[in-house]
Structure formats: C-alpha cells, structure tokens
Amino acid sequence: MSCTVLVAGSANLDFVVRAAHVPAPGETVLGREFRTFPGGKGANQAVACARAGGADTRMLLALGNDDFARPIEASLLAAGVQLHTIRDAQLPTGTAFVCLSDDAENAITVAPGANLALRPCHLPALDGVQWLLLQMETPLDTVLAYARAARAAGVKVALNAAPAQALPDALLAQLDMLIVNEGELAVVAGDPPDLATGLARLDVPCVIVTLGARGCLAREAGRTLLQPAFSIAPVDTTAAGDTFCGTLVAALARGQALQQALLAASAASALACTRLGAQSSIPDTAEVAVLLADATRVPGADAHAALAAWCAL
C-alpha cells in the first residue's frame, strides 16, 4: 500500500514578537524578544507529517523570489519534505505577523503574498499519493480543483478548514476528512447550537473537531471518538493545530486506526505547545513515542469521562 502524503498549501515566514499581552484595538504594547520562524499552515503541516515518520511527505507551495523564501525551504528540506515549488516573480513570499503573549495566546495577521499564486494547473502528478492534505490559506477555487483531482485519482482528501470561512457543498462533497476547531465549526456548519448539531450538519465521512486544552472529538461512520488532551504548561500555541493535522494524516497513511491516530496527533500537538515558533516547535516521532510511553501522562479513563460529559454527545 502506498504511504505518501501530498500537502498542498501555504508557506509563510513568521515575524514573532513576545509581549505581556496581545494588544487591544488602538492599544500599543511594548514588546520584548523578536524572532523569525518558518511557518504557514501548509508548510507546518508538511513538517509535522514528515517528522511523524513512516510516510513520505511531499509539498506543493508557492514562494516569492526573495530572501524570505530561503529559511522556509531550508526548514522543509531539513524535515525531509520533497518540494514542488512554484516561484512567483511578482508576489513576495507570504508573511505572518505574530504577537505572542506571556500566557501563550497569540494574535496573527497573514499577508498571503505568493500563496495566492497557487493555481489548479500547478498540482503535480498524484501517482503513489495516498492522502492529499489541504488548508484554506490558498485560493478557494484552487483548493476545490485539487480536491476534485484527488478524488478522481482515488486519493483520500483531508481539509483543515482554517482560516475559517463558509465552504461550498461542492468542496465538502470531495472530502474524506474535515478537521476544524470550535470556531471553524461554527462558521462551516452555520453557527450550530452545540457540537452534536454541528457534526450532524456536515456531510463528510469523517469530521474532527479540536477543542484546545480539552482535547478533540471525531465523528466517523456513525460513531463518535473522543481523545482528551495531554496536560502541559503551554509556552506558544502557534502551529499546535497544524502539528495535529500533519501527525494525524501521517498516522492514517501508515495504516493506523483513527483512535490511534488521534492519540498520536494529540501528543505531538501538546509537545509543540511547550516550545517557541511554528515549525521549530514540531516534535519528531521519537519524542512523541517517549510521551506516549509515559503512562502517567497519557490521559486515562477519568479524562475521557470528563471530556464526554463536557461534549454532552
């Protein structure tokens, strides 16, 4: 069985400043340390997938002809990602401006730049690809075209619907898996009154909702799966969701059952929250294995019961 994942999506250079708190509208906050990190939802997910091990990872991305592209390419290549790079001479490499507060919250503004240059014609051959992983930081018509091409080729399609926006039925019809957080679920499912209603409104074979520090839940083939979060002291939650997505799809590509994949993805995203930066925070398979081997840290029956009660499903 093929064990290859193609990630098609965004790549940005993140400009990160740390501050006591995220500024309110009209407020100026005096920051402290400033650093740049390779980021972008697509690139983060590709790095997470590659570091999870066991699945060859490819990425289709668009970059500008500028110095901002270099650290992004270096990070992806160092993680073992095979690149299909579209170079745009007119648009700059995508950038994100991140304010990271002392309580690990963040506020992010993205300038898409060259990410907007990804077009349907750029999709590489899908021979040998098992999963296509998409996000919403590239044009909607491009995402839809890629999903349709993958479905026609017998490739499974996972979409992380972030940033949040309403999704056309034509796109939902191409998906095998949809991954959203609570805010994204509200937008995609038309502001449902509760999680159960939101899940029921989405005509996708598998829907996963991440719930931050609580964990996540999945609906697949009429059954509901729960995975409580690992207890950690967060430093920076940037790329936690991307780490979850990339690790999850890599586990599924390796043939793991969904419940096992949710556990591995939750462990990886927890570790990512304990470090600074986007791709710099993503753990490798050995680090995840150490966490999963520690029975004192793996969520137990009480955590499952608490999550089930909170979800009220």
Global geometry: globular
Query: Strand order across the biggest sheet?
Result: 5-4-1-8-9-10-11-12-13
> Which residues sit in consecutive blocks of at least 5 with pLDDT less than 50?
none
Mean pLDDT: 95
Question: How would you describe this structure to a colleague?
Answer:
- With 313 residues, the protein is α/β, with parallel strands linked by helices.
- It has one domain (4-11, 39-91, 121-311): Ribokinase (UDP-N-acetylmuramoyl-L-alanine:D-glutamate ligase, 3-Layer(aba) Sandwich).
- The protein is 33% helix and 26% strand.
- It has ten helices and 13 strands.
- It has helices at residues 41-52, 69-79, 140-152, 169-172, 182-188, 195-201, 240-253, 258-272, 285-293, 301-311; strands spanning 4-8, 12-19, 34-39, 56-64, 82-88, 94-101, 106-111, 131-134, 156-160, 177-181, 206-210, 215-220, 223-228.
- Strands 5-4-1-8-9-10-11-12-13 form a nine-stranded mixed beta sheet, sandwiched between helices.
- Helix 2 links the parallel strand 4 and strand 5.
- Helix 1 (41-52) packs parallel to helix 2 (69-79), helix 1 packs across helix 7 and helix 7 (240-253) packs antiparallel against helix 8.
- The protein starts with a strand and ends with a helix.
- The mean pLDDT is 95.
